[in-house]
Design brief:
The chain is mainly α. Helices cover 84% and strands 0% of the residues. The protein starts with a helix and ends with a helix.
Length: 136
């Protein structure tokens, strides 16, 4: 059971990463068409929305779920996929907007954004592992 759930989580996170990659290119085109004032507003709003997704992420835990129930597990994976995708998409929006405002790449901030996204995915795996402990 543990192995199956682990691979479900791997597949979920790969799908989210692919969707974020696909989302980046139309997002880039859209943000290039905006004025600097619009970019400032989008950067502020997207940064605030990241906080909302993080509250949702830390409020959710696999350890209170019945991971043996496939429907409940599907809901768990769906919730975490939405949270991770939303956070990743908002990170992309914030970073691209900020680069356009600055009119150059802020490579350090992009690297930190990537590390932040990776930590979110690792937290998802850690929380899943914590939830699976009660089935040992």
């Amino acid at each position: 059971m543990k192995r199956k759930i682990f691979w479900e989580n791997v597949i979920k996170n790969l799908i989210v990463a692919i969707l974020l990659t696909a989302f980046f290119f139309p997002l880039n085109d859209f943000l290039f068409s905006l004025t600097k004032a619009d970019l400032n507003s989008i950067t502020i709003v997207s940064t605030l929305l990241i906080m909302a997704f993080l509250f949702a992420d830390f409020a959710f835990t696999y350890s209170v779920s019945n991971l043996r129930n496939s429907w409940e597990r599907f809901l768990d994976h769906s919730i975490t996929a939405i949270i991770i995708f939303g956070t990743g998409a908002l990170l992309e929006i914030s970073l691209v907007s900020l680069n356009l405002i600055l009119q150059r790449e802020f490579i350090l901030l992009e690297a930190l954004g990537l590390l932040f996204y990776i930590s979110l995915v690792l937290y998802d795996f850690w929380d899943l592992e914590r939830g699976l402990k009660k089935y040992s």
